[in-house]
Write a structure and sequence with these properties.
Arc Repressor Mutant, subunit A; alpha+beta
């Protein structure tokens, strides 16, 4: 019997609000442990939570950006469980009346065709404290850092629409892109601002039944998510073939063993309405106000880039995949740079150099104006591509304009025909074998001769003119 996987995801995304969800403690990553705490997020007796409006707005924008419908009423519940990262014994979440329902995201399936994957609901909840496990020494200990306790987050629960690791990985990539466009969360799996749980079960292919699932929790990279699903599909299939029952429980992914390992039995504690946080009631006017705050999302932006700037689909997707890239691209193009030139140089030169220098668009010295100035010199044939790469490197090190750098370091392109003809004559005289090869039909000999001419000019020659002169003389 052939089996297929049934996969659903639960994604926790921390909202980048200035404060925690129910108190005024700072929501900051990287501070000293237990610095940002108060009686509310430590849940001292008598403390009363006060809901933060900023959390509601960012949660609603996130839901709308994922094509969900905001519910007129939502409410918090006490999700009861006992664990050291939750001192009060319950978590404030939205089990019964979630903020939003019925969303979707489109991905490219393994066959290249678009697939729509549904979102069941999105609800708000407070994050829990962070357990720090110290394994050095004879006696391992676990410590608790409450800085994260009470941080606002949204939990995104999908429908079990995914059938492969590819589906799950592409969904997370699309989700991360959408939320980063909204600016409501950094969605960094590495730093923990986004965490993914996968629910995986197996069933006979072609049936609609839902079988016992296994949850793999807290994966911190898209690659680990895919690897864990691959492993679980193999493990569960082997159990079914052997006639062994699948037991409902929770597992963790161990990247060193490249295997999931049993963590604990699946525990569902009681979930009761919280009496201290009032119900949230929103009006149509408020929903429309939130809708007006939505930016142009990446799918629509890619379509517009194709229409407006004549980019191929691949180029449009590359320039719209991240909001900061798309804004930088348009800022460059609006300075009269050809869109496809801007696309190529951003993707092939600027972004790799920024990554090497660990820079973002907020702190790079290569502003859109300076980058556009460089590309304008290139398009006017004032410099060639080799010189442009040299100038770009200096733009990262200097505040000088591209024009000043070109003049100071002698990067201006040589386009004088008489001067270039002399260089070509020298190259032809020095390389008779390559000349004979070209005349005997060896096309790559032309590339060699162009390279020799560029070397003779110390990289300053106009390669287009060099090729034209060579072609004429040969």
């Amino acid at each position: 019997m052939e089996h297929e996987a049934v996969i659903g995801l639960e994604i926790h995304a921390e909202l980048n609000c200035a404060t925690k969800m129910f108190c005024d403690c700072p929501n900051r990553i990287g501070d000293e442990p237990n610095l940002n705490t108060c009686p509310i997020c430590l849940w001292f007796p008598g403390s009363v939570p006060k809901f933060t409006a900023d959390a509601l707005e960012k949660a609603a924008l996130t839901a709308m950006g994922l094509n969900c419908t905001i519910q007129d009423r939502s409410a918090f519940d006490q999700k009861v469980y006992y664990y050291p990262d939750l001192p009060k014994g319950f978590q404030l979440s939205q089990a019964h009346l979630p903020l939003a329902r019925n969303g979707w995201l489109d991905i490219a399936g393994e066959d290249g065709q678009p697939r729509r994957l549904r979102i069941h609901k999105i609800h708000m909840e407070e994050d829990v404290a962070k357990l720090v496990h110290e394994m050095e020494g004879r006696t391992p200990i676990s410590l608790v850092d409450f800085n994260r306790a009470g941080v606002p987050l949204v939990e995104i629960v999908t429908e079990p629409d995914m059938r492969s690791p590819h589906d799950a990985m592409e969904f997370i990539r699309a989700l991360r892109t959408q939320i980063r466009y909204l600016g409501t969360s950094e969605c960094s799996m590495e730093s923990g601002s986004m965490r993914v749980d996968a629910n995986i079960s197996m069933r006979p292919r072609g049936t609609d039944q839902l079988n016992t699932k296994v949850e793999v929790k807290n994966m911190n990279s898209i690659r680990h998510l895919g690897d864990a699903i691959v492993y679980e599909i193999s493990r569960q299939t082997a159990s079914l073939v052997a006639g062994e029952p699948i037991v409902l429980h929770t597992r963790l992914w161990d990247p060193e063993k490249r295997a999931t390992v049993a963590m604990r039995g699946k525990f569902e504690g009681p979930c009761i309405p919280d009496p201290m946080v009032p119900q949230i009631v929103v009006t149509e006017a408020w929903k429309n106000e939130m809708l007006a705050k939505l930016p142009e999302m990446p799918g629509r932006k890619a379509d517009r880039f194709g229409r407006q700037y004549g980019l191929t689909r691949e180029e449009a997707l590359a320039m719209s995949a991240e909001r900061d890239v798309s804004e930088y691209f348009e800022a460059v193009v609006n300075r009269q740079v050809a869109p496809r030139t801007a696309t190529h140089w951003i993707a092939a030169q600027l972004l790799p150099t920024m990554r090497e220098r660990n820079q973002s668009f907020t702190d790079t010295p290569v502003t859109p104006a300076r980058f556009a100035g460089l590309l304008t010199l290139l398009e006017r044939d004032a410099i060639n591509a080799n010189a442009a790469r040299e100038v770009l490197a200096r733009l990262f090190e200097s505040e000088q304009t591209p024009e000043t750098i070109v003049e100071r370091y002698g990067y201006r392109q040589v386009s004088n025909a008489d001067q270039l003809e002399g260089i070509v004559d020298q190259v032809l005289a020095a390389n008779p074998a390559a000349v004979n090869d070209y005349r005997n039909g060896v096309a790559k000999a032309m590339g060699f001769l162009v390279g020799q001419a560029m070397q003779a000019s110390k990289g300053k020659a106009n390669p287009k003119l060099i090729r034209e002169i060579l072609t004429g003389k040969l």
